Amino acid sequence: MNPLYAAVIGAIVLALLTVSLTRAGKVKTKADYLLAGRSLPAFVLVFTLLSSWIGSGSLLGGAENAYKNGLVALWQAAGGWAGLLLIYFIAPRARKFAQFTIPDLLEARYNQTARVLGVIAILFAYTAIASYQLIGGGDILNLIFPTVISPDLGKYIIAAFVIVFTAIAGMASVAYMDVVIGMLATITMLVALPVLMHSVGGWSSFHHALPASHFQPIGNYGLLPAMELFLPTCLLMLGNQAMYQKFFSAKSERDARRAVVGWIVGTVILETVIVLLAMLGHVFALRNHQTPFPREIISFTALHDLPSILGALLMGAVFAKILSTANNFLFSPATNLVNDIFARYIAPNASNKRILIVSRLMVALLGIWALYQALHTGSVLQKTLYAYTIYAAALTPVILAAFYSRRANSAGAVSAIAAGTVITVFWDTDLVHRHLPPIIAQRDAIFPALLAALLCLIVVSALTRPPRPEQVARFLP
């Protein structure tokens, strides 16, 4: 055990709990818990958006891909960048709608069935995303305390902590912790990159140490597999409920749009740095004849190849980012169960106190489900793409149609959500693979699921009655 690394992790845990407990006293109503009282300024929004987006999907899944394949891993990040450019125009409309969740939007624009199916799709996608954050946190605890904490025990510990600090104060704790986490991660990664590059002997030595394909845009991947990285990430970004909740929490439409600019700049920089750090870690592993788990490469490099203080801070930053993302993607589906099921159908007249109690209970139950998934997951990269694809195919098309199509209707939306969810969930099962040619069955689910959802949305909407004018008026100018 390295006492310095343990001390940094302990300090981060203490700081996060302090922020949660401090904000907890200000949570009195449903809006306080779910949307931080709709009071977040652009500065806070930038860091909470950045922290919720860059978690284990980038730090473990993206790093795993970069370790194995090099710069081709940036196709996954580039999907997010493309989505962000489009979000710049969506953010003010999202803030103008100003409800609590994406299913709120689905019911207002389509119908109650769309709301319920939206909740189901979000539960599948977001608990999967939360699950591999627990894997990442468990890996870090195992690296720091190798003889005391196994990876599985680490998952249990991280799950318990995330459940506790997510449940305490809701969005208020999420957003204000993300400011600290985002600044810590940004600074340490930007400092670590040139230090490692210098240690490896500069760009020339770095380039010669890895296969030439690692520095080519497509590498050994091919365009179609690269697009299977790009599309799910882009479409998840465009329809991401955690993102829309942050926009709903903004002080104003202007704050929402300004936050997107900062988010774009920060994401492009950090995602690129993460890929380069993973590739540099691969070089050090080759030189030192080490065989780390690819998904652990950034934390492994921080532990073995950086000066102690910088390495401890980088490890702490990765740990904090993972906790932040787990927090966001656990809190968001809990919001759905409370706002879209409990308060909508079970107890519509429930008091604020009762809603807060149920909200915290839902966080705990979903945290346990995410832990179960974490204990039965192999590749973080594959789990990442599965979670992204469910959301990208089932929800993003109908969310964008809500803001930009006058013809999309409830029948089209319901059929699209159902088709995207079912195809993604069952795509990798033996039932599907036995009845499809191998050349199709071996592909990622994003293309068949997205195509089916789009066809349902367009064709079913065209063949059925148009939406009522009042359904469209709140979303289109």
Automatic annotation (TrEMBL):
<dbReference type="InterPro" id="IPR050277">
    <property type="entry name" value="Sodium:Solute_Symporter"/>
</dbReference>
<dbReference type="Pfam" id="PF00474">
    <property type="entry name" value="SSF"/>
</dbReference>
<comment type="similarity">
    <text>Belongs to the sodium:solute symporter (SSF) (TC 2.A.21) family.</text>
</comment>
<feature type="transmembrane region" description="Helical">
    <location>
        <begin position="355"/>
        <end position="373"/>
    </location>
</feature>
<dbReference type="InterPro" id="IPR038377">
    <property type="entry name" value="Na/Glc_symporter_sf"/>
</dbReference>
<protein>
    <submittedName>
        <fullName>SSS family solute:Na+ symporter/sodium/proline symporter</fullName>
    </submittedName>
</protein>
<keyword id="KW-1003">Cell membrane</keyword>
<feature type="transmembrane region" description="Helical">
    <location>
        <begin position="74"/>
        <end position="91"/>
    </location>
</feature>
<feature type="transmembrane region" description="Helical">
    <location>
        <begin position="297"/>
        <end position="320"/>
    </location>
</feature>
<keyword id="KW-0915">Sodium</keyword>
<feature type="transmembrane region" description="Helical">
    <location>
        <begin position="6"/>
        <end position="23"/>
    </location>
</feature>
<keyword id="KW-0739">Sodium transport</keyword>
<feature type="transmembrane region" description="Helical">
    <location>
        <begin position="218"/>
        <end position="239"/>
    </location>
</feature>
<keyword id="KW-0406">Ion transport</keyword>
<feature type="transmembrane region" description="Helical">
    <location>
        <begin position="260"/>
        <end position="285"/>
    </location>
</feature>
<feature type="transmembrane region" description="Helical">
    <location>
        <begin position="156"/>
        <end position="177"/>
    </location>
</feature>
<dbReference type="GO" id="GO:0006814">
    <property type="term" value="P:sodium ion transport"/>
</dbReference>
<keyword id="KW-0769">Symport</keyword>
<keyword id="KW-1133">Transmembrane helix</keyword>
<keyword id="KW-0472">Membrane</keyword>
<feature type="transmembrane region" description="Helical">
    <location>
        <begin position="184"/>
        <end position="206"/>
    </location>
</feature>
<feature type="transmembrane region" description="Helical">
    <location>
        <begin position="385"/>
        <end position="404"/>
    </location>
</feature>
<feature type="transmembrane region" description="Helical">
    <location>
        <begin position="116"/>
        <end position="136"/>
    </location>
</feature>
<keyword id="KW-0813">Transport</keyword>
<dbReference type="GO" id="GO:0005886">
    <property type="term" value="C:plasma membrane"/>
</dbReference>
<feature type="transmembrane region" description="Helical">
    <location>
        <begin position="447"/>
        <end position="464"/>
    </location>
</feature>
<dbReference type="GO" id="GO:0015293">
    <property type="term" value="F:symporter activity"/>
</dbReference>
<dbReference type="InterPro" id="IPR001734">
    <property type="entry name" value="Na/solute_symporter"/>
</dbReference>
<feature type="transmembrane region" description="Helical">
    <location>
        <begin position="35"/>
        <end position="54"/>
    </location>
</feature>
<keyword id="KW-0812">Transmembrane</keyword>
<feature type="transmembrane region" description="Helical">
    <location>
        <begin position="411"/>
        <end position="427"/>
    </location>
</feature>
